[in-house]
Amino acid sequence: MEFEFRPIKVEDVKQIDSWNYDGFVEKVEMAPYFESFKQTGKLQGPGGYEGYAAFHENEVVGLFEFDVNGRIMEIGLALRPDWIGKGIGATYVKQGIAFGMHHYHEDVNEIRLEVDEQNKAAIRVYEKIGFKRKTQKDRNIEMRMVL
Fold first, then answer.
1. Where is the N-acetyltransferase domain (predicted)?
2. What φ, ψ does residue 20 adopt, rounded to 5°?
3. Least packed by Cβ within 10 Å: which of 30, 49, 56, 120?
4. Is the pTM of this model over 0.90?
5. pLDDT score at 10
């Protein structure tokens, strides 16, 4: 399965904002995109991350966010709710990271992300591809993968 990552557009933000999940995560936080667009005309994710919509067969199926600081790439991501539990999580995360590494042309040697402790499926995917748990604050676990 191949994903195509494109710079996020307003229509993608609206679509992703409509996704509803069962369980502890109800929605992907898209408010920063709307707020930044309203204030500056530019779409920026939480913490100034750059957002990319993930497409499969011209359909938005995911979100990948990047922030590169020196040799560290921080990522945020989401997969459309009806795509969760289909066994494609590791492929999605690997392709998103590969896209980020190629796109930013930086000498990155570490990838970081945060995940809610209750998101057991995502934690399993991240650990499967090489992420390690580093710290935990409240319910958020910081995970890192050294390249």
1. 3-147
2. -125, 135
3. 120
4. yes
5. 97
Q: Which CATH architecture has domain 4-107?
A: 3-Layer(aba) Sandwich (3.40)
Alpha carbons 75 and 66: distance in angstroms, whole number: 5
Q: Confidence band (pLDDT; 50, 70, 90) for 22?
A: confident
Contacts of 47 (CB under 8 A, 6+ apart): 32, 67
Give the integer Cα–Cα distance in Å for 38 and 44. 11
Report the C-alpha gap between 84 and 105 in whole angstroms.
30
Residues contacting 66, CB < 8 A, separation 6+: 49, 50, 52, 73, 74, 75, 100, 103, 104
Give the phi and the psi of residue 55 in degrees, each rounded to 5.
Answer: -115, 145
Pairing mode, strands 72-79 and 110-116: parallel
Task: Note the maximum CA span of the chain.
Answer: 40
Nearest to 147 by CA among 114, 80, 101, 116: 101
